[in-house]
Specification:
Strand order of the largest sheet: 2-1-3
Oligomer: single chain
Shape: globular
Distance between the termini: 11 Å
Number of strands: 3
Pfam families: DUF1059 (PF06348)
Order of helices and strands: EEHHE
InterPro entries: DUF1059
Protein name: DUF1059 domain-containing protein
Length: 64
C-alpha cells in the first residue's frame, strides 16, 4: 500500500478562501509544491519563512 501526502491551502490560517491543494508521493514533493503555490498564487517568498512558520505549515501536511 502506497502512501501519499497532501496540503490544502485553505487549512492555513488566513487562507480559508484559497482553493489550492497539492498531493504528492513524498513530503519533500509537497513542500516544493507548497512553496511554488505560495509564490505564484500569493506572491510570498518561502525563503523568508521562519522556523515557526515552517513548523506550522508542516502540521498541515496530511497522509492520504
Amino acid at each position: 500500500m502506497s502512501t501519499a501526502f497532501s496540503y490544502a491551502c485553505k487549512d492555513c490560517e488566513g487562507m480559508e478562501t484559497c482553493p489550492g491543494k497539492v498531493v504528492a508521493t513524498t513530503k519533500d514533493e509537497v513542500w516544493k509544491l507548497m512553496e511554488l503555490h505560495a509564490v505564484v498564487a500569493h506572491g510570498e517568498k518561502p525563503n523568508s519563512w521562519d522556523a515557526e512558520t515552517r513548523n506550522y505549515l508542516g502540521t498541515l501536511i496530511k497522509s492520504v
